[in-house]
Design a protein that fits this description.
By secondary structure, the protein is an alpha+beta fold. The protein has three domains: 21-257, Aminohydrolase, N-terminal nucleophile (Ntn) domain (Glutamine Phosphoribosylpyrophosphate, subunit 1, domain 1, 4-Layer Sandwich), CATH 3.60.20; 277-447, Rossmann fold (3-Layer(aba) Sandwich); 468-495, no CATH class. The strands form six sheets. A seven-stranded antiparallel beta sheet has the order 4-3-5-2-11-10-12, covered by helices on one side. Strands 6-7-8-9-13-14 form a six-stranded antiparallel beta sheet, with helices on one face. The radius of gyration is 23 Å and the shape is globular.
């Protein structure tokens, strides 16, 4: 992922946007004569994980060739010229969403460095929770940074390692970072993949006619015609070369805790994440939501597109007809980039249009995947009412979001989360709906077929609902405990 250029500025500062964003998708392939072309196709399938920038690095055994662009994959890497511009038998790619203030070409990945042991390119999905500490420590020791991305910290750690082999240097760097990550790295002889010790961010291994493939999601494997082999395990490093695929487990065993929001929102419905069909999980979430928050109504309507599977599950479990009461335009830009509040509100209406034939005179159950700030939700509720709905019952297919994320999800600070400080009735009034309901945390675990949540050792990363973070948050702990600024406190730590 990429940090903001202004560290003290929250990702949602100055915005009323109500959409969660996962900040990256990664892809890699080894041993293919058109590696960059395959990588471009793989990135197309991962476009939903990052829509502001993309990049590809390829190696022909001697030279590295890289391109990084702002904008969508299709704009940057279309046509047959990709392979000519980026020749090589190994390639990695990255698609990126940046938080506010960090949308600069210098932060676009993959990042490349010439090291003593040779060139290396790296792509990173996730977020390092000790990034500020490590960056300031490295700067104090003489490191020169070219970006504000936490991914560049990993390159510096690899460069400074005294281990003799590049794989050992890579593992040495991993031993110093904390947080959630899925990494792909490319050298002139190897493709390397790694997943954080808790498996917070996903990474899978595939096979394309005997050529190993790494990707954030299985949908990217399908997109290039590769077969799914297996998930990269939590804490695992895979080293791919001409001799095959080698698995390394350099860290002590820990219980996996994958991110629940991959299933709630981020992963594409046709992906399989950690052995679970995302589509099936979302339908079960909807069915459980109906059991927990059922209401008499005439029609179930999804907020498209992410609310569709849950709405199907809700309708099937409740026996209430499912209809497309809201039509989404797929040709609109994101409303949050519009320059004024008034234009943003018009943008919401252009992006979501009411289907009056379905809504007029009906008691509507409106299903969304989640509710963050509530700013978009209230506009959609009003739109449905103006289309003639007699009642609007808003339902969230995830539990109330009460805590921010630090592992790769762009999420508002706690004071800007609707459910953090308000009761259910207060939220209902603010959202102007006739009733409001959320899936419970145990209900979400039920939909994951994981049984009730184990409070002593939760089976998933679920801090956005519970406030229980799976790792320490070093940067935040330093900031919270400091009497001075973060920079001052970290400089004291470095000097110590």
């Amino acid at each position: 992922m990429s940090r903001t250029d202004t560290y003290a500025t929250g990702p949602y500062a100055g915005s009323d946007d109500d959409t969660l964003r996962l900040e990256c998708g990664v892809f890699g392939i080894w041993g293919h004569p058109q590696a960059s072309g395959v990588t471009a196709l793989g990135l197309h399938s991962l476009q939903h994980r990052g829509q502001e920038a993309c990049g590809i690095a390829a190696c022909d055994g001697q030279r590295f060739h890289t391109e990084r662009h702002m904008g969508h994959v299709g704009e940057a890497f279309s046509g047959t010229g990709v392979v000519d511009r980026l020749p090589g038998f190994g390639a990695i790619g990255h698609t990126r969403y940046s938080t506010a203030g960090g949308s600069f070409l210098r932060n676009v990945q993959p990042m490349f460095a010439d090291l003593e042991a040779g060139g290396i390119a790296i792509g990173h999905n996730g977020n390092l929770t000790n990034f500020l500490y490590l960056r300031r420590k490295l700067v104090a020791e003489g490191a020169i940074f070219q970006s504000t991305s936490d991914s560049e910290v990993i390159l510096h750690l690899i460069a400074r390692s005294r281990k003799p082999k590049v794989v050992d240097r890579f593992v040495d760097a991993l031993s110093q970072i904390e947080g959630g990550y899925a990494l792909v790295a490319l050298t002139n002889t190897k493709l390397i993949g790694a997943r954080d010790p808790l498996g917070i961010r996903p990474l899978v291994l595939g096979d394309l006619e005997g050529r190993p493939v790494l990707a954030s999601e299985t949908c990217a494997l399908e997109g290039v015609g590769a077969k799914f082999v297996r998930d990269i395990e939590h804490g695992e490093v895979v080293v791919i070369s001409d001799t095959g695929v080698e698995s390394i487990r350099p860290f002590p065993a820990a219980r996996a805790r994958p991110c629940l929001f991959e299933y709630v929102y981020f992963a594409r419905p046709d992906s399989v994440v950690n052995g679970q069909s995302v589509y099936a999980v979302r339908k079960r979430m909807g069915a459980r939501l109906a059991a927990e928050t059922g209401v008499e109504a005439d029609v179930v309507v999804p907020v498209p597109d992410s609310g569709v599977p849950a709405a199907l599950g809700y309708a099937q479990a409740s026996g209430i007809p499912y209809e497309l009461g809201i039509i989404r335009s797929h040709y609109m830009g994101r409303t949050f980039i519009q320059p004024t509040q008034g234009v943003r509100e018009m943008g919401v209406r252009m992006k979501h249009s009411p289907n009056r034939e379905v809504l007029a005179g009906k008691r509507v159950v409106l299903i969304d995947d989640s509710i963050v700030r509530g700013t978009t939700s209230v506009k959609i509720v009003r739109m449905v009412r103006e289309a003639g709905a007699k009642e609007v019952h808003l339902r969230s297919a995830s539990p109330p979001i009460k805590w921010p994320d630090f592992y790769g999800i762009d999420m508002p600070d706690r004071e800007h989360l609707l459910a953090a400080t308000r009761s259910l009735e207060e939220m209902r009034r603010m959202l102007e709906c006739d009733s409001l309901g959320f899936l419970s945390v145990d209900g979400l675990y039920h939909a994951m077929q994981a049984g009730p949540r184990d409070p002593a050792c939760p089976q998933f990363t679920d801090h956005y609902f519970t406030g229980e973070y799976p790792t320490r948050l070093l940067d935040r702990e330093i900031a919270d405990n400091a009497d001075d600024t973060v920079d001052r406190q970290l400089s004291l730590l470095v000097s110590a």
